[in-house]
Specification:
Keywords: Glycosyltransferase, Lipid A biosynthesis, Lipid biosynthesis, Lipid metabolism, Transferase. With 385 residues, this protein is α/β, with parallel strands linked by helices. It contains 19 helices and 13 strands.
Length: 385
Amino acid sequence: MFKIMVVAGEVSGDMQAARVIRVLKKKRSDLSFIGMGGKEMLKEGVKILFDPTQLSTIGFVEALKHLRKFYQLLDMLSRVIDEEKPDLLFLVDYSGFNMKMAKIGQKKGVPVVNYFSPSAWVWGEWRAYKMAKWGAKIAAVFPMEVDVYKKAGADVTFVGHPLLDFVSPTMSSEEFRNFLGLKETDPIIGLLPGSRKGEILSLLPPMIEAARLIHKRMPQIRFVLPLASPVFKDLVTSIIKDAANELPLYLTIGHAYEVMDNAELILCASGTATLEAACLKVPMIIAYKTSLSTYFLGKLLAKVKFVGLPNIIAGKEIVPEFLQRNVTGENLARAAFEILENRAKKEEIEDELAKVRTALGAKGAVERVADLILRTLEENTAGEK
């Protein structure tokens, strides 16, 4: 029986880890799992030692208040490794924490596979050199990740991005439009302000203001706001209350992929949604706001020119992005008009997004990560014989 310790931090990492665990269980029946994660890993039968998803933060400074807790968790997991003697550490995202876990694994002689590895191509190549030094096998999801980690001497496998397996609408265009009460000819703009309270509070108001300006010039457009979950429905309803009386604004729980698939354009928070939109080749305008301290520190440390993942992958600005005080209704609306009123520009963006999708690899990323974990287990077992 092989025992795997899985360490994931935020909700997204918990979900990505759970998908890999699900595949591993189908491939092998002699595996057991313990670790740190959330409800998705718990559903897959992982013995959860601590759920850190409640500590999710945005930005460097915001994370400092949890620093003591992070070190307590590292000490706890280190003790568990001594007691449980796992055969492998599977580290998913949560880069600052999991870099330290990789070092602990190397010290204790436990092989490490790292999925959604520290973004060395953004925050500095030293991260890649550290992970290489600690012997972590890197399951790379981005093409630029491969180059940086190989240069650092790490064992890298390009698995591609798992979004390619999951980004697909579950309703046809006709079904979705009937669901919302929209005509087939109604043009749609999607509003995706993010799934966290802070993002909604900072990004939804300027998006609504942009919608007002767009509606004045293009009254035929319908605006659809898909919530990731009902958790913040009351908050969103309070923000859009006045606008809902004067705009053709539709609020729905879920159905983000249907919105993207039917939209002429989306206004979205920087993050995973931008890659999801790229997979569906929908033009977008990216918005990003954080605390001033985090923004200036990030600007000082970051090694890339852009915040939007499609632009980072393309190596140039293929979709507009607005940061901090530039996230205004006027700026978002102006960028929207430049796309909506210029067919050639819209098609150019769609072509560039198709290239981004191609750069993300082929479908089957989760399967490839599971195979990498099993190979690593077998190699380690063979080495012990």
